[in-house]
């Protein structure tokens, strides 16, 4: 009877000890017994379980498959995500898309030049036709001039970037129409 109680106590102590640490499983299948200190967007900071007062170690999140925490919960990192979009909210991505469009999209090939030329050569009334036609269409993908195609895969970022680029395109087209109308009026007054 004493032997059964002794074995039960040993088993319970062993199980408690084996589950009282975090387990980091790397993509190479290596397990690290640890105490996870912090999980950031790109890194996992931990201390080795056998030396909790020792140095702080850091692993790239992209090298880790999973963390099993001492409380039984898990974090699984089965997909490498772009560091910008990993934990970004929908609103953050929309703001970034708008800011990037303001910085990168300059409205080249928007139709503003053709609108101005058509307005000068015909009249402001006829110049409305290309102005309305060009401003009603979004910029084509090859003219968006985005710097990161991975970011464009995020729907919120893509929507905000395209919307801001379309605003910039409209502004350029209607500025071209205004310049063309002013030049047409000046030509009429001079002739």
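Q: What amino acid sequence fits the structure above?
A:
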């Amino acid at each position: 009877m004493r032997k059964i109680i002794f074995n039960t106590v040993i088993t319970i102590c062993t199980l408690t000890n084996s589950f009282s640490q975090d387990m980091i499983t790397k993509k190479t299948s290596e397990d690290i017994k640890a105490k996870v200190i912090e999980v950031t967007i790109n890194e996992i900071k931990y201390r080795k379980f056998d030396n909790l007062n020792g140095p702080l170690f850091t692993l790239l999140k992209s090298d880790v498959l999973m963390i099993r925490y001492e409380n039984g919960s898990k974090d699984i990192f089965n997909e490498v995500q772009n560091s910008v979009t990993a934990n970004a909210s929908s609103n953050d991505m929309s703001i970034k898309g708008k800011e990037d469009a303001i910085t990168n999209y300059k409205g080249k090939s928007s139709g503003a030049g053709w609108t101005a030329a058509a307005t000068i050569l015909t009249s402001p009334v006829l110049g409305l036709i290309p102005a309305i036609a060009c401003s009603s269409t979004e910029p084509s993908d090859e003219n968006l001039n985005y710097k990161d195609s991975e970011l464009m895969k995020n729907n919120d970022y893509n929507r905000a970037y395209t919307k801001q680029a379309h605003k910039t395109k409209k502004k350029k087209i209607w500025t071209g129409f205004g310049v063309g109308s002013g030049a047409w009026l000046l030509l009429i007054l001079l002739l």
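Q: And what stands out in the fold?
A: Residues 13-19, 80-84 have pLDDT under 50 and may be disordered.
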